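Researcher: Go.
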Amino acid sequence: MQLRDIPNIISLLRLLAVIPVVFLLLEHRYGWALFLFAVAGISDGLDGYLAKHYGWRSRLGGILDPLADKVLLVACFLVLGALSLVPTWLVAAVVFRDLLITGGALLYNYRVEELEAAPIIASKLNTLVQILLVVLVIADAGPLPLPTGVIDFLVWACLTTVLVSGAQYVWIWGRKARRKGVHGE
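Model: Structure:
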């Protein structure tokens, strides 16, 4: 192990943290789940800082970091949906968007050209709204009840950003593929 491996180790630990977060949510230990989710969020910032500041970026880190983030977020949505804390239709929309983007990216990468992915602003906003929704739903279910309407507002804001960012990805990458001369066959 070298110092440059620290960001990857942090990302791997964040990926492994999904298991206890899911367990804590299923056991209705919302305070602890919220704490561990927050630690995961802080670790995401830390590994990103270390990778950028010290030049410790790696291909593995480029895969592990977003994978850990996405697995944690989707797992939380699935569990919160199963616990009826988030509407099932929103969980389906979030998961479908991620599958659509991932499938489209793989298709583009293997049928058109190597994909140089860069998140769009709507996608970054979607991620922010999803994180905020998960944090506030967990807080509301356990240690910090929220005023009526806050969660409902975030649910609709999340659906809006899911639809807008998903549609933008399809439009942007579909247009790039058509410019490269690739058509659906």
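Model: The two ends are 47 Å apart (CA to CA).
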